[in-house]
Amino acid sequence: MTFVHLHTHSEYSWLDGACSIDDLVQKAVQLKMPAVAITDRNSVAGASRLWHQCVKAGIKPIIGLEIAILNDPGDGRAFSVILLAKNDSGYANLCRLITLAYECDSATPKITKSQLAEHAQDLICLSFSVVGELSTLLLEGKDDQAKQISDWYHKVFGDDYYYEVQNHGLPQEAVAMNKLLNLAYDTKIPLVLTNDCHFMERKDSIAIDALNCIRKGIDFSHPEAKRFACNEYYFKSPKEMGALYDFPPQLINNTLAIADKINVLDGYIPVSERDLNVPRVVEILHGFSHSLKIKFKPNSKHIRVSLMEHKSSEILEHLRMQLSDFEIIHYTEYNSWTPRSIYAAVLKSMKVPEEKIEELCGLIPSEAKSLREAVLISVDFSCLSSEDYICSLATEIGDKLIKILKDERTSRHCYALIPNGMPVPIVRDIDGQPRCQYDTNSITDVGIFTLKFEP
After folding, report:
1. Is residue 252 part of a domain?
2. Domain range holding 92?
């Protein structure tokens, strides 16, 4: 028996996912899964990395996302769904929906049902977990409303709409599952089995709790410290998924059927085809001022400009006038935390006194790339960090999170030259300024020109 995970949160789920993309692909290969998906919240920032890692490993990458949909006017509630891109057109719609969600609310992105319907082509939609709209209405005893919602989604997505069934051992899931199975019998809408994967192994549940505390600025004594009600939200094997419940085999088979619907070969992640080259950009820059010092490498699409006495805002205005068919905006940096910063954050979540945190972190060698490496390099750190269980556990948790914790920042002096109409995920900062969700590597992968201003 095999199985494909279709509801998975990577490190790009912003302090909510502890599955690194590299680990996801490695585990999927190890478990002989033919494909693996990432469905990060309001993000496809990990799309390029997943695609490259999967292709290298010989399995199929599935790009999706979790996104909140505003309920009907007057209700005020928003419920998430899972959307999976079937091809390049579907991926383009994911990007457009992310942009619309951030335009609606940069703090808590969401879209309307009309926007979803407008951009539903070549997307597969899963109804979400027990807290999705369908299951919520069923649990509230509003069966007629649930049927109406189901009909609406089926009208929009047709055969690409699935009821999502999960079993993490929660009582409300058992009730919702039975009601969902009954509804499926009436509507003939197919069901698919998923696991809401937020970490890789069962024993990693404490790491996701620490991540939750860091995200909320609380410690483990807080009532909301535990992220999930149980430790079942991990990347399970096909055998474990098959043993969850006495489900009809079709629920597992549908994970494979969904994977088969997805075509990743024909430009799954769109690449820029606009005819722009370095000499053209340099010519435009020199048209602004010949005193600009411009540096670039042969065959590169990255240009560095020394400002000298000029202002970057004036150069950008000139570029925008000359390249009116391009959008020139910032892109994103995802800066990994250092072993010191991760260890300090985990210790703080465990209510270790500040003085002890400072003492321990001060002993971590600057050259150490992980806390395990710090233990091997520094005898003092090794001894002090192993003196009590809490500090020793914090080193284990810290190393679980070292590939996960990233600061999402706007690359202030760097800009992407994005062809108008090219589908890329554009988000809004708190101040309303647009920013491409891709980082430098993703920008390069999709063939977009970049520009960096230097003093």
Report:
1. yes
2. 21-200+235-260
